[in-house]
Amino acid sequence: MTPPPTLAILAIGDELTSGERVDTNSAWIASKAAAMGVRTVEHRTVGDDQPRIARAMRDLAAQSTLLITTGGLGPTLDDLTRPALAEVLGSPLVEDPEALAALRKWYTGRSTPMPEANRVQALRPESARRLENPHGTAPGLAATLGQARIFCLPGPPREMCPMFDRFVTPALQAAPQMRVHVRIVPTFGLGESTVADLLGDLMNRERNPVVGTTASGGIVTCRIRYTGPAADADRLLEESIADIRGRLGPAVLSGHDPRDDGLALVRSVSDLLRQRGQTVATVESCTGGLLGEMITRLPGSSDVFAGGLLTYTDALKARLAGVDPSLIEQHGAVSREVALAMAAGGLERTGADHALAITGIAGPGGGSEAKPVGTVWIARACTKSEPEARRFRFQGGRDWVRQWSAMNALGMLRLSLLEAHCSLLGES
User: Fold this and answer.
1) Cβ atoms within 10 A of the Cβ of 110, count?
2) How does DSSP assign 117-153, residue by residue?
3) pLDDT the model gives residue 254
4) Beta strand 93-95 pairing with 148-153
5) Mind listing the pLDDT tens digit for each residue in 149-162?
6) DSSP string, 236-300
7) Residue of 281, 260, 290, 262 lying closest to 399 (CA atoms)
8) How many CB atoms lie within 10 A of CB 421?
């Protein structure tokens, strides 16, 4: 059975290797390929150096069936993709009459004479073919080296993307009997190493489907990749998803949400509230409104978010949330008692079904031996259940403490809505 195609991506340009610009093309290409069931095996970036470009082309073409390069097709001396490809193919550069005619037509349409420097863009390796570019002056190139088909595309996205869709997409269509299928299962509440321990043999690289993990922004995502006949894909992927759910329990946020956009936790909580016809309010101190901002990132958040109180000072904790000043005097603003009072006040004063309260020491100053920087109390109150408060000790800088505080507040609400119980990262 013919194996599925594999893709390598080579981004070319000194501006990329120096950090002056971020390579967004490779991420765009890889996501397009993944949507068609094609696995990207490597991204590589090289500067404007012909021997390095040629070496990278040879290396990547030897280990993949498709190689896409971006950049280096302009008219200046540092645009070296054409001669590098010619070197790799062992094919001389020749002037393509159709390419030259298209260049002249481009400039004529703009009532501008074509600079002589642009004539170099009509060159191509003799064994390669030109890819038409109606959006700019740099034609693309297509060639074959061994088992690999090579596509050289211009760097500007407004030129690269249409050329990719027109010329590369057909080459990325895998044989229907052998495809790569990917599902993702986002989780929250467990560290990546703990998730890996619980998944165990599912992460064996020889397994098909194979499961891998990535951690970003507090979410640990399980990626399930199956390579094989399309007829078997859904069944085997669903079996793996069910296995992951069984092993990770309430940490799993959803079955297989294809949107890996960092909003999995917010989306999960919002969906649970919407299903119940309920709303949540926030009372925030050290997070300064970050929790409310997270909830409202999703369109339609007015269905589930009642509003929030920013009680950064002790005076506003009392005035806005109705916290008894004696509680603050006796226990301190960062305490179980004050967090619970903030949540109760938020519930009463907003009329929401749930209230989340956060009070803590985000740093870098303000900590003590008893309550070091990173100490945060998060409370949850509900009209139909007993309130709860949890203490967390977060490591890292101020932004990290605030981010984790908001995420764990959502995590507490989610567990309550599911009537599930588990510890959360940072809980002490």
Assistant:
1) 9
2) GGGGGGEEETTSEEE--TTSS--EEEEEETTEEEEEE
3) 73
4) unpaired
5) 999 999 999 999 99
6) HHHHHHHHHHHHHGGGB--S--S--SS-HHHHHHHHHHHHHT--EEEEESTTTTHHHHHHTTSTT
7) 290
8) 9
Q: How many CB atoms lie within 10 A of CB 357?
A: 33
Mean pLDDT of 63-72: 96
> For 253-275, what is each residue's pLDDT tens digit?
975 555 566 789 999 999 999 99
For each of the domains in the chain, give its residue range(s) and CATH number, in order of start: 6-172 (3.40.980.10), 179-251 (3.30.70.2860), 264-418 (3.90.950.20)
Q: Prior bond to 209 cis, omega within 30?
A: yes
Contact 191, 178 (CB under 8 A): no
CA distance 120 to 180: 39
Nearest to 355 by CA among 323, 337, 376, 382: 382
What is the Cβ-side half-sphere exposure of residue 404, based on CA atoms within 13 angstroms?
Answer: 25
Tally: H helices and E strands in the chain: 15, 16
Which 8-state DSSP code applies to residue 66? E
**Are the C-beta atoms of 351 and 306 separated by less than 8 Å?**
yes
Is beta strand 179-187 parallel, antiparallel or unpaired with respect to 6-12? Answer: unpaired
pLDDT at res. 229: 81
Is residue 174 within 8 A of residue 235, CB to CB? The reply is no
In 3D, which of 228, 252, 230 has the Cα closest to residue 242? 252
Residues β-bridged to residue 72: none
- Number of neighbouring beta carbons within 10 Å of residue 101: 11
Rounded distance, CA 352 to CA 309, Å? 12
